[in-house]
């Protein structure tokens, strides 16, 4: 079915969840009232690397309101260690205690937990906990981590190399030797952090009678999280309920079970009193997962026209000190999808992931974000070296529709994507030729305008076969239920974890379409592990395809049963065509849909209250469950084009127009998709210009407040123009593709490429981020002096 | 992050506040807008034993013409400075600077006294005070005294305020008939503290620049008045090259230090650019005023 | 010291008086959320940058994380809960809904409170003025564009009809 044939999917409807949120009646974890709850505050290491010689909490224990102080040794009695060890060649296993016992590995590593009557008192006491540290040499950079004699962050491992994945496809080196030119480029992306406006936090309530833990936490993957939490507490999954209602942003930071959260849960059980934790912003910047610190090198062998003959990729990633998620993830995804929309079969990658004395990494919205900058940036480098037009080089190398399905060098199959269409759409919208004319004119006045292009092929969904091939534990399937109540209202659920992306709306579109009822009649329930079915949660842009897809299919099964009952009741032969539309049963007669007088309410009443009137062999009720495993990977694509001006005197970057042409497949909710695209692009632009988690040579985190870690405000971001060019995926329910990360990828690439396009006359290249005015001015100065 | 415990006093009169402050023995701190002190308290970078609230003293929020100067009360909020017609007419540089502070919400709360007492090296109001050689009135139980702004700022975040003193008011000289001003700053994001800021006020007599008040923030630990450095260049104005010459004269004397994020050379280049921009704009406005127009 | 102890204060919030007991250092935002159970005002940073905790004090926007509850006696505090009237959204709230100006909503109450005041003082703001005022509120989800559109829509609707 195409978008035009849907009745509910794709309708422009404002969000259903807004009312409670706009009026201040949402329920975030810290809003949940937990009578009698104690509050915790963690004592955190001031050192980046140190042995814990001893902890003296005597003074702290004596302070007002303090109930107890616990250390790693205590927590080890009540929890299991985490072992992160998927059986992957080149990936080292890592283990983690609930709280460190022997040594701390980053500034901010929690070493003790104060429990008190309120947070104020807990903080007072935390200041009084005396920890005797023996500082150790610090690994403060990826280069230092790789040195043979580097101090070891994890002493159970032979070195700091956590993961090393290599692969060769075809013969890139031979192609390079025979090439007209080999263009080498480097790309250095800086460390960033997710910065959801709501920090982490949780509340644990232990029912000692039922031996049951209710755990309130803002989390993207409630069921897998519950499994992990139960396991580490040596409880069975049915002894744990995870409740994640409203969450103030996740972006990948709220997936893993953090040690602080595990400690809170364990303490609630030990103390037999509810315990809660509110992470403050300083802790969030210091000790919540971080991301993106990658150094990359590409070698592109090209012919005289700029056609790619082969591509070699090297990446080194600084993973921090702990493995909150598998260290080979980057290798798998980035290396796999790097070549994106471009044709090249001779390809190799070498990806090293190293440990350092910084916070452990967590996947951050578009963990593979660097790929589009790498790929389009490499093509720009080719254009510079061969003195070609960057757009021409892209057109030469990009997949044509007739090349699809295209088997990438790595074995990934690309189909149902439209990169050439989005490229042409975006450059037409920006009026490429006119820009080049304006650029030339500005140059004569000493002004530097630049235009950057970045075409993104965004991997979404991640079905089970992807995880299996990647050796990442877990599944990619999703689960849903749809239940039509006796009064005809529809309740539905899936195993996703909402963090603000409007699921109540987009999933209502899917259910409404599958079943044939108005969206207002559908109520979506998410985030409560006793209510929602066991699903894999929200990450990697899977909500639309996996969540929406499963619900659409489930709702379709519901409609089938409803119509079977209707058919029986109306005494019709099976060839009679019926449908449910606006919760009313309609019958097609000579090409026209006619009312039958039956509504969903009537059918529901029969199903629940008059089961003997149902067709022979049909069971009562209207309660449907479904699981669905999407294709191993689906793809969305988009082309981002960004205009900038670089001020030669100050290095400041000012935005002109920003256009994105997007193909996200079938769109469940246009409102939600637009919001996701705008938000993703904003995050990419903000990251490229401002956001930087900086550690000094001693591993001290210099980005401890929001005055240091800068995020773009409304004043810094351009107006974004979106061109929708959606085409469906032919193998997913309703043709959904999913989206929400591609915007980050495209924004990073388009902005960097735009700045480099502006600097091209000066013969300098910005190959690292953030693109601070100081850095750009330094490049310009270099050019002016030589 | 919750602050360390403190006691709270909300005196009814200014004299009560001064007595309370004196009795605190250096362990009491006054709070006005709280935009700078609040974060420091919450992060436990400041741990006073007592907080003395000045917000009830609305009699200290005023903008007054006192003859040869404009007098502004210490509790005047930034938005009041930004919106004041009297400031706009008589001391426009102050209004121009105030409009660049933070953003709308910050300007509702931050005060002139608070900004001067906080003494961030690149803050707007300290820079304008130093540029125009304003006089700062300090009061305590021991009496009152007035200090030139150029003697008030001692080092980054450090001023000449005694532990028992508060700022009561500041007097800014009125602009002359043919005087134009300009405030230029450069920051990473709108509303952030400046990396470098320049305040310029230029008075014409006919074609000649009769007086130039010029101040730079961000090149040193305190904002600097550089009138003396540019005095020799004034005769060249308004011929081509005069603003470059002025910038060179300033940079020859004010040499910033490298810090981890911002190289000294970058600050110098910024200062060069901003001085030239500010002088050019101030001159344009002075000419317009001289010729009877509205700048 | 005895005057660090909890003290009885009266907080006037959303038109009602509340007698509560607070230590001097208790943040206004904590008093609102926990003592008065008005959880619509959110904590995002506790150092005045993100703006999520913005409330109105005597009609002007103020960060509740940079205010101590004890300072608020004799002042009128208004929070997000006071903006809608018996379930009917304000003009600004309605515009945010129509323009999809909120996603996770954690920053939204701060934006609503800032702009309820801003639009009263500035009935015809241009986009630059809106973005300038909005720069005091961090949003990580929306990229701000639809928030700006919503504010423009609200401003237009709040202006009396031009003849």
Structure, explained:
The complex is a heterotrimer of chains A (about 775), B (about 300) and C (about 160). Chain A is an alpha+beta fold and about 775 residues long. Helices cover about 30% and strands about 25% of the residues of chain A. Chain A folds into three domains: about 180 residues, Aldehyde oxidase/xanthine dehydrogenase, molybdopterin binding domain (Aldehyde Oxidoreductase, domain 4), CATH 3.30.365; about 190 residues, Aldehyde oxidase/xanthine dehydrogenase, a/b hammerhead (Aldehyde Oxidoreductase, domain 3), CATH 3.90.1170; about 250 residues, Aldehyde Oxidoreductase, domain 4, CATH 3.30.365.10. In chain A, the strands form nine sheets. Chain A has a seven-stranded mixed β-sheet, sandwiched between helices. In chain A, a hairpin with a 6-residue loop joins strand 30 and strand 31. The longest helix of chain B has 27 residues. In chain B, helix 5 packs antiparallel against helix 8 and helix 11 packs across helix 12. The radius of gyration of chain B is 19 Å and the shape is globular. Chain B is built from twelve helices and 14 strands. Chain B has about 300 residues and is α+β, with helices and mostly antiparallel strands. The mean pLDDT of chain B is about 95. Chain C folds into two domains: about 80 residues, Roll (Ubiquitin-like (UB roll)), CATH 3.10.20; about 70 residues, DNA polymerase, domain 1 (Orthogonal Bundle). Helix content of chain C is about 30%, strand content about 15%. Chain C is built from five helices and five strands, in the order ββαβββαααα. Chain C is elongated. Chain C starts with 6 loop residues before the first strand and ends in a 5-residue tail after the last helix. At the A-C interface, helix 1 and helix 19 of A face helix 2, helix 3, helix 4 and helix 5 of C.
């Amino acid at each position: 079915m195409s978008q035009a044939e849907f009745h509910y999917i794709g309708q422009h409807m404002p969000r259903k969840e807004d009312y409670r949120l706009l009026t201040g009646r949402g329920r975030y974890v810290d809003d949940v009232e937990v009578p009698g709850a104690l509050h915790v505050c963690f004592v955190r290491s001031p050192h980046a690397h140190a042995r814990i010689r001893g902890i003296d909490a005597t003074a702290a224990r004596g302070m007002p309101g303090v109930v107890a102080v616990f250390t790693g040794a205590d927590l080890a009695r009540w929890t299991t260690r985490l072992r992160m060890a998927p059986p992957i060649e080149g990936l080292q296993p890592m283990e983690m205690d609930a709280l460190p016992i022997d040594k701390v590995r980053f500034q901010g590593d929690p070493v003790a937990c104060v429990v008190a009557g309120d947070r104020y008192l807990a903080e007072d006491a935390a200041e009084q906990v005396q920890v005797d540290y023996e500082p150790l040499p610090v690994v403060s950079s990826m280069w230092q981590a790789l040195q043979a004699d580097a101090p070891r962050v994890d002493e159970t491992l032979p070195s700091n190399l956590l993961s090393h994945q290599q692969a060769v496809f075809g013969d890139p080196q031979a192609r390079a030797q025979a090439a007209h030119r080999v263009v080498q480029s480097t790309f250095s992306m800086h460390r960033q952090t997710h910065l959801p406006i709501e920090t982490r936090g949780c509340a644990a309530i232990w029912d000692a009678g039922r031996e049951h833990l209710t755990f309130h936490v803002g989390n993207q993957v409630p069921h897998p999280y519950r499994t992990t939490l139960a396991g580490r507490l040596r409880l069975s999954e049915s002894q744990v309920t995870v409740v994640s209602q409203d969450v103030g942003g996740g972006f990948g930071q709220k997936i893993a079970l953090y040690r602080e959260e595990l400690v809170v849960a364990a303490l609630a059980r030990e103390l037999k009193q509810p315990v809660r934790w509110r992470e403050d912003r300083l802790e969030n910047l210091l000790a919540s997962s971080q991301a993106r610190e990658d150094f990359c090198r590409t070698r592109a062998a090209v012919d005289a026209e700029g056609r790619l003959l082969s591509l070699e990729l090297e990446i080194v990633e600084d993973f921090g000190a702990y493995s909150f998620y598998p260290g080979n993830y980057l290798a798998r995804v980035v290396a796999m999808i790097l070549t994106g929309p471009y044709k090249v079969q001779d390809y190799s990658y070498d990806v090293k992931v190293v440990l350092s004395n910084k916070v452990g990494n967590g996947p951050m919205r578009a963990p593979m974000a660097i790929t589009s900058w790498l790929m389009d940036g490499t093509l720009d480098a080719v254009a510079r070296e061969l003195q070609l037009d960057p757009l021409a080089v892209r057109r030469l190398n990009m997949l044509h529709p007739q090349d699809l399905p295209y088997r990438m060098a790595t074995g990934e199959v690309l189909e149902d994507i439209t990169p050439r269409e989005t490229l042409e759409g975006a450059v037409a919208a920006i009026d490429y030729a006119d820009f080049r004319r304006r650029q030339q004119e500005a140059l004569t006045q000493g002004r530097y305008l630049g235009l950057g292009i970045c075409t993104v092929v965004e991997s979404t969904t991640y079905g089970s076969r992807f995880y299996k091939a990647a050796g990442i534990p877990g599944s990619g399937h999703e689960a849903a239920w749809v239940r039509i109540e006796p009064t005809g209202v529809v309740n539905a659920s899936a195993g996703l974890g909402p963090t603000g992306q409007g699921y109540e709306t987009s999933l209502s579109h899917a259910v409404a379409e599958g079943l044939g009822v108005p969206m207002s009649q559908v109520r979506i329930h998410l985030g409560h592990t006793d209510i929602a079915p066991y699903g894999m949660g929200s990450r990697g842009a899977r909500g639309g395809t996996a969540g929406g897809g499963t619900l659409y299919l489930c709702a379709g099964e519901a409609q089938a049963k409803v119509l079977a009952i209707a058919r029986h009741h109306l005494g019709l032969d099976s060839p009679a065509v019926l449908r449910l539309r606006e919760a009313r049963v309609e019958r097609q007669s000579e090409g026209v849909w006619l009312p039958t007088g039956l509504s969903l309410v009537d059918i529901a009443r029969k199903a629940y209250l008059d089961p003997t009137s149902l067709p022979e062999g049909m069971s009562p009720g209207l309660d449907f469950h479904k699981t669905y495993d999407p294709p191993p990977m689906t793809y969305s694509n988009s082309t981002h084009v960004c205009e900038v001006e670089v001020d030669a005197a100050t290095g400041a970057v000012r935005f002109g127009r920003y256009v994105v042409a997007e193909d996200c497949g079938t769109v469940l909710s246009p409102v939600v998709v637009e919001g996701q695209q705008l938000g993703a692009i904003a995050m990419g632009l903000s990251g490229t210009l401002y956001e930087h988690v900086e550690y000094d040579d001693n591993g001290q985190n210099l980005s401890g407040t929001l005055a240091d870690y800068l995020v773009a405000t409304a004043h810094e971001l351009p107006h974004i123009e979106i061109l929708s060019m959606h085409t469906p995926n032919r193998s997913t329910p309703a043709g959904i593709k999913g989206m929400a990360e591609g915007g980050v990828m495209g924004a990073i690439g388009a902005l960097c490429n735009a700045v480099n396009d502006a600097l091209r006359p000066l013969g300098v290249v910005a190959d690292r981020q953030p693109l601070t005015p100081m850095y750009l001015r330094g490049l310009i100065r270099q050019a002016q002096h030589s | 992050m919750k602050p360390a415990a403190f006691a709270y006093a909300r005196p009814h009169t200014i004299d009560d506040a001064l007595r309370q402050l004196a009795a605190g023995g250096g362990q009491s701190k006054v709070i006005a807008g709280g935009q700078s002190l609040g974060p420091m308290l919450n992060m436990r970078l400041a741990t006073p034993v007592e907080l003395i609230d000045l917000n009830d003293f609305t009699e200290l929020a005023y903008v007054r013409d006192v003859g040869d100067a404009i007098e502004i009360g210490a509790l005047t909020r930034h938005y009041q400075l930004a919106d004041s017609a009297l400031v706009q007419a008589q001391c426009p540089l102050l209004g121009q600077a105030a409009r660049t502070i933070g953003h709308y919400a910050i300007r509702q709360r931050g005060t002139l006294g608070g900004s001067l007492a906080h003494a961030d090296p690149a803050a707007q109001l300290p820079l304008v005070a130093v540029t125009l050689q304003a006089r700062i009135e300090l009061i305590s139980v021991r009496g009152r005294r007035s200090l030139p702004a150029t003697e008030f700022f001692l080092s980054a975040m450090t001023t000449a305020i005694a532990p028992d003193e508060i700022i009561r008011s500041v007097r800014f000289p009125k602009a002359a008939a043919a005087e134009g001003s300009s405030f230029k700053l450069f920051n990473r994001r709108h509303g952030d503290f400046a990396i470098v800021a320049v305040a310029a006020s230029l008075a014409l007599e006919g074609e000649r620049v009769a007086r130039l008040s010029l101040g730079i923030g961000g090149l040193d630990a305190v904002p600097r008045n550089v009138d003396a450095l540019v005095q020799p260049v004034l005769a060249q104005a308004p011929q081509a090259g005069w603003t470059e010459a002025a910038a060179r004269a300033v940079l020859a004397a004010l040499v910033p230090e490298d810090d981890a994020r911002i190289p000294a050379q970058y600050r110098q280049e910024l200062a060069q650019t901003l001085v030239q921009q500010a002088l050019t704009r101030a001159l344009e406005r002075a000419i317009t005023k001289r010729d009877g127009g509205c700048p | 010291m005895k005057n660090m102890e909890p003290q009885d204060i009266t907080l006037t919030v959303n038109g009602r008086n509340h007698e509560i007991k607070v230590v001097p250092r208790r943040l206004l935002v904590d008093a609102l959320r926990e003592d008065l159970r008005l959880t619509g005002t959110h904590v995002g940073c506790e150092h005045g940058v993100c703006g999520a905790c913005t409330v109105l004090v005597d009609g002007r926007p103020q960060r509740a994380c940079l205010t101590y509850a004890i300072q608020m006696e004799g002042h009128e505090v208004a929070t997000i809960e006071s903006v809608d009237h018996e379930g009917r959204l304000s003009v600004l709230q309605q515009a945010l809904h129509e323009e999809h100006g909120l996603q996770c909503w954690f920053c939204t109450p701060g934006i609503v409170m800032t702009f309820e005041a801003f639009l009263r003082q500035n009935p015809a703001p241009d986009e630059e003025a809106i973005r300038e005022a909005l720069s005091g509120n961090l949003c990580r989800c929306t990229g701000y564009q639809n928030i700006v559109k919503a504010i423009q829509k609200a401003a237009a609707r709040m202006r009396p009809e031009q003849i």
